């Protein structure tokens, strides 16, 4: 009966029934007007969720967020180009690794895990680059390994203060659709999302917003690309089609997902995620534990990495939850493996659903002999949710 329990991992997230039904369509000619009628509303909706305005292009690839990042760099950069990135979690590390594999020169700002993107260090690195060799600043908006959400607007201010012309690429895979994202206002040149997080779909779509500046960079970029070539996508998308076979069912689901988000109201969606995350943190405090994020301004609204007590192993809790209670939490990754377990609170979740996850976590702690009073965290979250009901 596992399918009856919601998941509490930071993606893939729970899929609402109406989105599953929207994806479940018969074979459709993807070169027909019928496909264009599905595709165009999805593109327009993504533009609204990203706050792109009228400028730039939306690119929807049959891939994942990782493929979206590969498309971002391969369409805009050339071998030997320099990019600037801070490493402060597993996913910022993976983007750095990807760039290095593509023959790019990566200037890395090493940052302790649990902290966010170091705005001052980014500004200093850009000021020191008087020759403007740095072509792109890479930023992970929400680092799911540590439950840290960085301030993208502060990174843009740092770039502007340095007077540097670099582009800004943002990994918004586990933030877009869950928290406010202002692509135009923050001066983001490429934003990358994935279908399986805030959009509440199965994995399979990389969703990108691309600014005019990034589109211009395509004209001189020489990294190889074929399947991910933006030019092919833009040319065929204009007529409502694809240069190859698209993920028709997922695109139909994406259009429905945006309908759900906008029916709820994006402001209410964002408020719900703030409320859910705060209730989880109240529960953690009642357990006598703390988040991995080092300060409240860094607390993620989509996932919390819970630092486990000394002598305990977070992976044990995740494994027991899956084996005994059919409940999925996230393990610690990289430098925090075993030191944390992760509670995802994004996508299709409610207060009541989150309470069930907190109760399951408490049962696992008690089963493992951790110092826990059953019901303590649940009660703390209940008190918060009762007084802050959506």
Give a verbal description of the structure.
By secondary structure, the protein is α/β, with parallel strands linked by helices. The chain folds into two domains: 246 residues, Type I PLP-dependent aspartate aminotransferase-like (Major domain) (Aspartate Aminotransferase, domain 2), CATH 3.40.640.10; 122 residues, Aspartate Aminotransferase, domain 1. The strands form three sheets. Strands 1-9-8-7-4-2-3 form a seven-stranded mixed β-sheet, sandwiched between helices. Strand 12 and strand 13 form a beta hairpin. Helix 5 runs parallel beside helix 6. The longest helix is centred in the C-terminal third of the chain and has 21 residues.
What is the chains' assembly state? single chain
Radius of gyration: 21 Å
**What fold name stands as the CATH topology of the largest domain?**
Aspartate Aminotransferase, domain 2
Annotated CATH homologous superfamily of the largest domain: Type I PLP-dependent aspartate aminotransferase-like (Major domain)
Q: Tell me the series of helices and strands, N- to C-terminal.
A: HHEHEHEHEEEHEEEHHHHEEHEEHH
CATH architecture of the largest domain: 3-Layer(aba) Sandwich
Low-confidence stretches: none
State the secondary-structure class.
alpha/beta
What percentage of amino acids are in beta strands?
15-25%
Q: Would you state the CATH class of the largest domain?
A: Alpha Beta
Q: Tell me the total number of β-strands.
A: 13
